[in-house]
Amino acid sequence: MKKNILIFFFFTQLSTFAQRQNLIPAYNRFDKNLSIDLGFGTAHYLGDIHPANNVYSYISTVRWNVTSGVTYQFSPLFSARLGISWIRISANDFTFAGKNMAANPQSDAYDLQFLRNLHFRNDLKEASLVGTLNLKNGFSNRRSNRPEVMPYVLAGVVIFSSSAQARDKFDASTNQIGAWTDVNISNIKPSIKLGIPLGFGIRKKISNNFDIVAEVAYRITVTDALDDIVNMPYQATLNTFENRSTEVFNAYSGESRAENFNIISNRQGFSTYNGTAQNLPPTIGYPNPIPQRGETGNDAYWTTSFKLRYYFNKRIFCPR
């Protein structure tokens, strides 16, 4: 929560500073204009598997997004954009904890996360209303007096649908990775979720009617269930997706967990795996009250995108 408050405060102060610098030039008239854009980029998740304070959270399990929007430039400084995006986020305890263990073999900081062995993917369907603030002097319309380069910041609101999935158990006899299945262990009713996007970007003019755009946007959300992992005890159920700590193979990748499992078991005082049993020895989960299945705090996601923007020829002239 403190992290999100600091991010929001930064963008508020940046907006105030820009307005005080008299960024709006005194042109006799301004060409209000409409533009459309289409782009793609990367998608990243922060949450119970990828904590924000770890560098591997930003480079592990990077996925994709496709996006489109319509922008109305109603002053030299401000514009508003309606957008739609399809954003896939994903993460895997096995991959994330394994990278940290390889980087620091003596540390036990990620032992419990490796034992937990959860993973997910989530295809977010997002609609957004975003305002942008230009960060330098200049006309910002479609014709030749549009600046060659224009940096900007953005903020707004998004609504998105969320439906987490996980893979069924890996079949070692056929070497077959399981199918993706909808999961809701967190028992949170599926619904439309809200978020606040904050970000920055830069536009580069390539012709009178076209720009290329690079943009980074972070979404503060009001849900902890993007990954279907919340701060709750393991339950006494037969649901395969509830507790995956005894699976010999990671369901997401099909890789064996045995080597790192035995390293952790020796370090933590658990029974080790003999190499022939169908399941790893039990370590965490019901009826143990701790550890919890997840941590407290809402999840977040962020995207990078690269877009091509087209400016329509129609102009609306307004007096100064």
Overview of the molecule:
With 320 residues, the protein is mostly beta strands. The chain has a single domain, classed as Porin (Beta Barrel). Helix content is 15%, strand content 38%. The chain is built from four helices and eleven strands, in the order H-E-E-E-H-H-E-E-E-E-E-E-H-E-E. It has an eight-stranded antiparallel beta barrel with strand order 1-2-3-4-5-8-9-10. The longest helix is centred in the N-terminal third of the chain and has 19 residues. The radius of gyration is 24 Å and the shape is elongated. The relative contact order is 0.21.
Layout of secondary structure:
Layout: H1 2-20, E1 29-46, E2 63-73, E3 78-92, H2 93-103, H3 111-116, E4 119-134, E5 149-161, E6 164-167, E7 180-182, E8 192-205, E9 210-221, H4 258-268, E10 300-311, E11 316-319
Antiparallel strand pairs: 1-2, 1-10, 1-11, 2-3, 3-4, 4-5, 4-6, 5-8, 6-7, 8-9, 9-10
Poorly predicted sequence stretches spanning 5 or more consecutive residues: 21-28
**Overall tally of structural domains:** 1
CATH architecture title: Beta Barrel
Kindly state the number of beta strands.
Answer: 11
Q: Spatial order of the strands in the main sheet?
A: 1-2-3-4-5-8-9-10
Shape: elongated
What's the helix-strand series? HEEEHHEEEEEEHEE
If you compute it from the alpha carbons, what radius of gyration comes out, rounded to the nearest whole angstrom? Answer: 24 Å
Tell me the helix content.
10-25%
Structural class: mainly beta
The CATH topology: Porin
Helical segment count: 4
Q: How many strands, what sense, and barrel or not for the largest sheet?
A: 8 strands, antiparallel, barrel
Strand content: 35-45%
| Through-space gap between termini | 43 Å
Mean pLDDT: 89
The quaternary structure here is single chain
